[in-house]
Design brief:
- Two copies of one chain form a homodimer.
- In chain A, the strands form three sheets. Chain A has a six-stranded parallel sheet, sandwiched between helices.
- The first copy, chain A, is built from twelve helices and twelve strands.
- Chain A has 339 residues and is of the alpha/beta class.
- In chain A, strand 6, helix 8 and strand 7 form a beta-alpha-beta unit.
- The N and C termini of chain A lie far apart (82 Å).
- In chain A, 42% of the residues lie in helices and 18% in strands.
- In chain A, helix 1 crosses helix 2, helix 2 crosses helix 3 and helix 5 packs parallel to helix 12.
- Chain A folds into three domains: 55 residues, lambda repressor-like DNA-binding domains (434 Repressor (Amino-terminal Domain)), CATH 1.10.260; 128 residues, Response regulator (Rossmann fold); 130 residues, Rossmann fold.
- Chains A and B meet through helix 4, helix 5, strand 2, helix 6 and helix 9 of A and helix 4, helix 5, strand 2, helix 6 and helix 9 of B.
Chain lengths: 339, 339
């Protein structure tokens, strides 16, 4: 069985191939009279003609594709839920995500952006696996773009990012509300919005609770298990009854360090993590109370913002930062102190 | 500045739009004389004409896209390296991966496959986040397809999968070579090629080493940390000096269970994992010796196979299963026994 082409439809309808194409694929520049359009469409249907998405894209100047360019989200075991959220939301609008993971290589990224322009994507989501500033000048093109889990220093594009200050507040509040007053914070040695924001949130909550500042309670560690393990000594010496860890990996290292010293969680010390990297946090002994990153929501909101810009050509949508709430995830690593 | 169109190029060159298109986009059916083709291309370049990938796809009947359809590889924190390998290999051939993660929903999958056909993908990689059989009848189309990390019961498409039997052999050999003879195997309760294959490998190696079979050493656990934790009692009672765990998560649970009993790894019991889920395995105390899943290689080999089928229209490439080696990853959780 031969495939039905646009030419077959045109011949059967007695019109030119161009008229057949413009009848089947809506086109703003070439309006075809309604009766011709309907006749061509009926003939196309009766012949079993399958419209070709490439042809439709050519005529309309865009495709049903949204480009999703990322450094490592698709391949790193961390922020995949950003893609999940973006994909679910794109599907709801009948759009397809064209995902390209560049491994952070600039040459690959440039080629990816060129290819996406060639594929006539409606717009671009640019996303990173951890929250950080990016140089987004390179995105400059006719198509709209939204940054997800990252932001541009010069506010060139709208950005959807986690609310790190609120996240730091939430983690600290969990401990203050359980009656702790000597609360350590193991922050990361790597400069990042997470480092600055979570520290700010921690300080705000302690101040609001009338707990005087003690800089010996703020420690720095490499943001992984070894970092947490190595900071355990200082943590124990500080006399803290609770610790807020920069992330779940640090908390996992602190668990190992404390257990090796014969200390028990949460009886001897309460622990709160960050990230809700659940392959770790849900399965520690005891299960780790932590603060989640809103990866899924970041993806959903990124697509919503992008489609809003596509539909509303005014400029007001095209800048600004949306901060998304980091939710508490309550498990078993906080002890409630008696008053 | 107005965008240069194909029509502008055609007018400047004094040829029809069709001739301009066929000159710029190679087309087997419509051969344009070399001197015309070169002249049109030079004019296009001097005008700054940007070829449109959709147009190219329409003329050639395919695009530079390869469809990558998966249940959850892009969004689950486990097998993302399959995408990494596939993407790296696709890039090397100038191809772009159109990745769609369906969350395992059949309706989404059907729509994804339809949209990919509309986008004129050259072929399809169908991949799953863990090694399992799939119903691949639905893939049936004119385009070639390769299954990665999964296989069809009826061998409808070529499949690239991990070699589970060899992986089970490798894990067991690590322990036998370190002098262990009483080796437990904590297998998963979930039926899968991994369960069957790794058990087969374990049995083969024990038999070859002349170690008599003891069924009390084969245990079953849910394939996560809780499963491992809960099986620790039976493991200790079995008198094993070493244990091969179905995966790293089970090993992590056994670590917690053994430590809680005051036992030490590897001095009291040696542990080998599987998967090399490195956020866990590299960071346990002691770091876990394990067997890796060849996710990156599965992705690379999947694309190679697919492109081979695209280029070589004979049927011989179109079936068969390729089993890829699972490599040992040596860390610190095996004790060498004295003879």
């Amino acid at each position: 069985m031969r495939k039905i082409t646009l030419q077959d439809v045109a011949e059967a309808a007695g019109v030119s191939v161009a008229t057949a194409s413009w009848s089947i694929n809506d086109n703003e520049k070439h309006r075809i009279p309604a009766n011709t359009r309907n006749r061509v469409r009926k003939i196309a249907e009766s012949l079993g003609y399958q419209p070709n998405a490439l042809g439709k894209g050519l005529v309309q100047g865009t495709s049903d594709l949204i480009g999703f360019v990322t450094d490592d989200v698709a391949t790193m075991p961390f922020a995949g839920q950003i893609i999940k959220g973006a994909q679910d939301e794109a599907w709801r609008s009948g759009k397809l995500l064209l995902i390209i993971d560049t491994g952070g290589k600039e040459s690959v990224e440039n080629k990816a952006l060129t290819m996406m322009a060639e594929q006539q994507v409606q717009g671009i989501i640019y996303s990173t696996w951890y929250h950080r500033p990016v140089e987004s000048l390179k995105l400059q093109s006719e198509r709209p773009a939204v940054l997800v889990n990252c932001f541009d220093m010069h506010d060139l594009y709208p950005a959807i990012v986690p609310d790190e200050v609120q996240g730091g507040r939430t983690a600290t509040e969990l401990l203050v509300k359980a009656g702790h007053r000597r609360i350590a914070f193991v922050n990361t040695t790597s400069p990042s919005p997470a480092r600055t924001g979570r520290l700010e949130g921690y300080k705000q909550v302690l101040e609001e609770a009338g707990i005087s500042r003690d800089s010996s309670l703020i420690m720095y560690a490499k943001p992984d298990q070894e970092g947490g393990f190595n900071v355990t000594e200082s943590l124990v010496e500080s006399g803290a009854t609770a610790v807020f860890c920069h992330n779940d990996r640090v908390a996992m290292g602190i668990y190992d360090g404390l257990k090796q010293k014969g200390l028990s969680i949460p009886d001897d010390i309460s622990v709160v993590g960050f990230d809700d990297q659940s392959v770790i946090s849900a399965h520690l002994h005891p299960a780790l109370t932590t603060v989640g990153l809103p990866h899924y929501d970041l993806g959903v909101l990124g697509i919503r913002k992008l489609l809003k810009i596509c539909n509303d050509k005014s400029d007001e949508q095209k800048v600004g930062t949306t901060r998304v709430k980091c939710p508490p995830v309550i498990r078993d690593s906080i002890k409630r102190l008696q008053f």
